[in-house]
Specification:
Layout: H1 2-23, H2 26-36, E1 42-48, E2 56-63, E3 69-77, E4 82-89, E5 91-93, E6 96-99, E7 103-107, E8 113-119, E9 125-132, H3 136-147, E10 166-167, H4 170-173, H5 178-188, E11 195-202, E12 205-213, E13 218-219, H6 221-228, E14 232-233, H7 237-251, H8 262-265, H9 282-287, H10 307-312, H11 317-323, H12 339-352, H13 356-365, E15 382-383, H14 385-396, E16 400-401, E17 404-405, H15 409-416, E18 432-438, E19 441-450, E20 454-459, E21 464-470, H16 478-494, H17 498-503
Parallel strand pairs: 10-12
Antiparallel strand pairs: 1-2, 1-9, 2-3, 3-4, 5-6, 6-7, 7-8, 8-9, 11-12, 11-21, 12-13, 14-15, 16-17, 18-19, 19-20, 20-21
Helix pairs in contact: 3-6, 7-12, 7-13, 11-12
Length: 504
């Protein structure tokens, strides 16, 4: 009897607590949850704590209007820039945290650090660390970014940052702004996926500079301020950047002519370059017509038969690339081969006496006004949108930056011209010569292109540059982008002066 009374009392107590809880107002529940989770609420930087390179991210952990502990804003940094809002609920009990189902961790006694473990799909565990963010300027900016999540998509004036770039209005450039306003609205609506940046210039004057996050939903001055100063991974646009660096090295005599065999440039691999493979030169690497067997585009990157996958799993990636058997004689056929990028970078690192990234920064980007260019040895660069635009301007003007010749005219002409047989895909030295069809005419362009939607497009006839940075790794919008360039953007730029005449 006594035990039954205890059971009934316990049940009654539970019902009483439940009733009390249900009577609490939403504000009271939110306040109670905020008090319970006080140690975890705030801004955190999440970084990989293991060997090798990895992205970092910023997380704003907070309690939402329903009393749930959430990531109010998540910003991925370093690899593929993107922003998410209200992206996940978080479990927090007795200093233990869990989110995304794969991350678990525990707060240390300093209340400033959390040790995390990420469990991959194969069961392998990876260490991460969360450190509390105290920088007031960054926190204020992140709050402003979040507050702008429902902002409209009105065109923003391009600010003069006094960084050596000339800026101007649509009207001053003689360009009708209405087609571009409609395009920005479409990006804001998600019609082009996860676009991060849209930057355009004519006659070296920036007239459009827009930034987006969370699939276009985040837009406004705060988002622009944050992303404008953030270094973005540009994927295979890195190859075009490497082409420019190679030109600097060849122009200055740090590298011998491009006709030099790779076996002479990297003698330690001479045994891999026997017989006809000895004819492979630096020219063939830059033009991607080495003749080596290579399967990169025919299978997904995660496929174990993809040569990119295989290369990155080898201790000596260059040896893997150069060990591939010949499929055709060097110079006969273009085959897209990212291994060529790796080998060219190693050649520069070996012969110049500094890393490719250091040479790129000191010889090219610093003279153009860039103050930083993260580019680790053997890796790929990360670059701000405005600094990538500088490279486009440099190439568009035959290697000259504001009157100073940084790359020879000859190298720019050679690297951007087609180096393949006429019946093959047009490709230069890590640049894509292209043709656009505009109002019945053919317009020539030079492009740097990277997966995920990275485009640096140069149109010499119009002195026009278009730059797009994105995170479209799951869906491809290249065809839609080309169409809007041919039907909207280029006609508007081509019709310069109409806007000024209409305003008179």
């Amino acid at each position: 009897m006594f035990s039954n009374r205890r059971i009934l009392s316990a049940a009654g107590l539970a019902l009483l607590l439940l009733a009390a809880s249900s009577c609490a107002t939403r504000e009271e529940r939110v306040a109670a949850e905020r008090d319970r989770c006080g140690d975890i609420i705030g801004f955190w930087r999440v970084t990989y704590d293991g060997p090798g390179r990895s992205p970092s991210s910023l997380k704003w952990i907070d309690v939402d209007d329903d009393g749930d502990l959430i990531t109010r804003l998540h910003v991925e940094l370093k690899w593929n820039i993107f922003m998410q809002t209200d992206d996940d609920e978080i479990s927090w009990e007795h200093d233990s945290i869990a989110f995304w189902d794969e991350f678990t961790g525990r707060m240390l006694d300093d209340r400033e650090t959390i040790r995390l473990t990420y469990t991959g799909f194969n069961g392998k565990q990876h260490p991460f660390v969360m450190n509390r963010l105290r920088d007031a300027d960054t926190i204020r900016l992140l709050r402003d970014v979040y507050a702008s999540r429902s902002a409209g998509a009105d065109l923003l004036p391009v600010p003069d940052l006094r960084d050596g770039l000339r800026v101007g209005s649509f009207h001053a450039c003689g360009i009708d702004s209405l087609p571009f306003a409609a395009l920005v609205q479409e990006i804001h609506a998600g019609d082009y996926g996860d676009i991060h940046c849209l930057l355009m210039s004519v006659d070296d004057t920036l007239f459009l500079e827009e930034y987006f996050g969370a699939g276009g939903q985040l837009h406004g001055p705060a988002v622009a301020s944050f992303l404008r100063r953030t270094h973005h991974q540009v994927q295979s646009v890195s190859k075009s950047m490497l082409s420019a660096v190679t030109g600097v090295a060849c122009d200055s005599g740090l590298l011998p002519p491009v006709s030099t065999p790779v076996a002479e440039l990297l003698p330690e691999y001479a045994s891999l370059l026997a017989e006809k493979k000895r004819d492979i030169t630096l020219h063939h690497l830059l033009a991607m017509n080495t003749g080596l067997t290579w399967n990169e585009s025919g299978v997904s990157l995660g496929d174990s038969t993809n040569d990119i996958h295989r290369m990155h799993t080898r201790r000596d990636p260059s040896a893997y690339v150069l060990s591939r058997p010949l499929r055709t004689l060097p110079g006969r056929a273009f085959v897209y081969n990212s291994g060529c990028y790796h080998v060219v970078q190693e050649i520069i690192d070996r012969h110049v006496g500094t890393t490719t990234g250091e040479l790129a920064f000191h010889a090219l980007f610093a003279p153009m006004g860039c103050d930083s260019l993260p580019w680790e040895k053997g890796g790929a660069p990360h670059i701000r949108a405005r600094d990538l635009w500088r490279l486009g301007s440099l190439v568009l003007h035959d290697g000259a930056w504001q009157g100073r010749q940084l790359i020879s005219r000859d190298w720019v002409a050679r690297s951007t011209a087609n180096q393949q047989h006429p019946d093959q895909t047009a490709y230069g030295y890590f640049w894509w010569p292209q043709r656009y069809h505009v109002q019945g005419d053919t317009m020539h362009a030079v492009a740097a292109i990277g997966s995920g939607g990275q485009y640096l497009l140069l149109f010499p006839e119009l002195d026009f540059i278009a730059l797009v940075l994105a995170g479209n790794y799951e869906e491809h919008y290249g065809t839609r982008l080309r169409k809007v360039m041919e039907t909207v953007v280029l006609p508007a730029v081509r019709g310069r002066g109409a806007a000024q005449l209409a305003g008179k």
